[in-house]
Amino acid sequence: TKGHPDRKTGLPRWKYNYGNVVYITDYTSEKEVTCYKEAVSIALAPISEEMLDRHKCVKRIIDEEPHMCTSHFVVVIDQSGSMRKADVNGFCNRSQAAFGCLALECIAEQLTQTNAGMVADIDTLTLVEMNDEASV
Questions:
Q1: Cα gap 51→119, rounded to integer Å
Q2: pLDDT tens digits for range 89-109
Q3: Which of 19, 94, 112, 121 sits 20 to 30 Å CA-CA off 88?
């Protein structure tokens, strides 16, 4: 497709998509000017009033009686410079891939398997981001 024109010359540029990579070429379509990865799109999960009420109930139980937790997952995600490397298909960089996989394969999986009326199983997750210092 036709991209934005070159700011200096006014000549058209061309935009090509291959997978999640966008390539911008000069007006001849023979010389690459730049390229970048497009972020993967993750749809928001619908949350019903019933699910929100359950979340509030479980949060209150955890705050008041932490021994009621049936499991506690601790996820540590590296946020060092190497996580900015763009080498994971479907994601702009390793950091986005880590958070995307956490959302899609851990959180979403739990949401689809949980019965909103069930209060017996109370799972918690702590996310730790490791950079120069850890943050929870």
A1: 12
A2: 778 889 999 998 898 888 777
A3: 112
